[in-house]
Amino acid sequence: MTIPKKLVVYIIADNCEKNSLMKVQKTYINYLAERIDTTIILEERFVEKYGNLFKNCKFSQKISKNEINDTLILNFKTSETANISKYLSVPRFVFPKIVNSFITSMVEPISETELKMEIFGMTLYPTIFNSKASIKAFKNKQVRYISYTDIEKSVLRYVNIGIDLERLDNSKSKEKHKDFTFVFPGNQLAAKKRFEEQIKLFDALYIVNNKFKLRLFVFPQYHKKVPKREYIILEKSLKQEDYWKEASKCQAFVSTSKGESYGLAHLELLKLGLTGIYRNFEWVKEIYEGNLKYTANNFNELYLITKEVIADNQSGKIDFINNNHDSKKQVEIYYQTLIELYNLQIPK
Questions:
Q1: What CATH number did the domain enclosing 220 receive?
Q2: Is residue 315 over pLDDT 70?
Q3: Which of 59, 278, 324, 347 has its CA 20 to 30 A from that of 302?
């Protein structure tokens, strides 16, 4: 396979410091930059803020005509794919080789026009998705806006993001809370997380057993959404390793989220040794492929399972995570997939 001489990367920088986007982009790009001459398209204000995260990379605001040949554009801004040449100032009548890298969730509310443009752009150019769940969600939306003929021509792949197993192991605490303690997965209470169902669940459990706690490490803007309960411990959001250390002291977590493109926070908690209890939505089936011990199809099942877990305190399965979600292995697969999609665009 032919490896591109240059890689031009268009990343997401706006408002990403408080979530996993920059961390994921950094992992991918630094790995690629060790192998290909890499330039990141980034506004100067973001270069000052994030530039030190990227190793062996140059920074620019546009692409010159001389850079197009033997160059691959790796586009993380899938919402702008349809107009990528315009955004990157690609010269007219020049047709660059582009691969989209999709790492965010399609369940977030965006306008119909934005959604249509995103789906069109991701159909137009080869796209690597971050999980089997997100590629399936994309296909379900694709049929609403794209002709059958164009869908057949679209080139879609997925590579699990992966989690940093070594960092997680090094962050584990040797202590456990004396009271059975749940932790809320992640630091956001967006609508898709369906936090209100967790409150309904724990309220019902507290009536029959008041010997458990629920810890939340969410951003300050979500604190008003957390009702006052005897069992709730509302904490401030922490840096990554500090959060992992505190979370590892807990025994379990409940996932009521209706839509995750990958569910990074959930996988990390499983690796930390917590028992995971999930509502059995479509993304859960796609990501875990039947490897979870505790899944509930409705609220009554969720109540009974959680009640049982409190009593038995059983641990989650770790082998599945090690085999399928090791970030060091996944980034290698990502690189090989990227090269494959680049070669598909080379004229025969």
A1: 3.40.50.2000
A2: no
A3: 324
